[in-house]
Design a protein that fits this description.
Strand content: over 45%
CATH architecture: Clam
CATH superfamily: Lipoprotein localisation LolA/LolB/LppX
Largest sheet: 13 strands, antiparallel
Shape: globular
Order of helices and strands: HHEEEEEEEEHEEEEEEE
Structural class: mainly beta
CATH topology: outer membrane lipoprotein receptor (LolB), chain A
Number of strands: 15
Radius of gyration: 19 Å
Number of domains: 1
Distance between the termini: 72 Å
Number of helices: 3
Oligomer: single chain
CATH class: Mainly Beta
Length: 245
């Protein structure tokens, strides 16, 4: 009887703590769980694309540095050979593409696929805080876990995905799953946050599975194998310097 009462009390406390968070605090928690807090760091990543006719792999280095306007991200391919040297640069809501042979970078959409079904938005990491507003939230069980379901809408037309349905673990407030929607509301992709890891006391999303909801035979997994805190030069994140020595 006492155990039952204790469980009930804990459930009430968890409910109060969760809903005591403001909408923006919930989004901040979702970002903090997935991104390293350091001002400058490098990640080694493998992307595995699986489809009915086979499997392919790519290797990337992801550079991140915090500027006055926010974090900038540079995604550079090391393999396969056909993509080696290809670079995607995220500067705020602007995304640039460059590959050997181009005279200057090309501005592209955040939905642009870079390998398999993973877009540059998923590879660089979708930021929720400051980019989305919570339109609705409710408790829901997801795959046997207590979760908080958030319906999000982008605060700018330049954000890659206009709407997101996001499930957070109710206790830890870190993402479990996200559905990425078109402006019409049509679901485009499902993202599963399948593994988290730590760098000292800083947690980050170490594995994300991306499923195409329009073409059911596609699945792409992004794995982070190593994270290093490293001071990076500003020029690495300047779109005007892409492809220049």
């Amino acid at each position: 009887m006492r155990v039952t009462k204790l469980v009930g009390v804990l459930a009430v406390v968890m409910f109060v703590v969760t809903f005591a968070q403001t909408d923006e605090q919930l989004l901040q928690k979702a970002d903090q769980a997935r991104f390293i807090e350091a001002n400058s760091y490098v990640m080694s990543s493998k992307v595995i694309a699986e489809r009915s006719d086979g499997k392919g792999e790519a290797l990337m280095t992801i550079y991140n540095k915090r500027f006055a306007e926010g974090m900038r991200t540079r995604v550079e391919f090391l393999a396969p050979e056909s993509m080696k040297g290809t670079i995607y640069l995220v500067v705020g809501d602007d995304i640039y593409f460059w590959q050997p042979g181009l005279l200057q970078p090309i501005r592209i959409s955040g939905q642009q696929k870079i390998f398999g079904d993973a877009s540059i938005a998923e590879a660089a990491g979708i930021q929720f805080s400051g980019k989305y507003a919570v339109k609705n939230k409710q408790e829901e069980r997801l795959d046997g876990r207590e979760a908080l379901k958030l319906s999000l809408e982008a605060t700018s037309e330049r954000v890659a995905f206009a709407k997101v349905t996001l499930w957070l673990d109710k206790r830890e407030l870190k993402p479990i799953q996200a559905i990425l929607h078109a402006v019409s509301g049509e679901p485009l992709k499902k993202m599963l946050y399948t593994k988290y890891a730590k760098l000292k006391d800083d947690e980050y999303a170490a594995e994300i599975a991306v499923e195409d909801l329009l073409f059911k035979n596609l699945k792409t997994t992004i794995q982070i194998s190593e994270v290093k805190i490293q001071d990076l030069p500003d020029g690495l994140f300047d779109p005007q310097k892409l492809g220049r020595p």
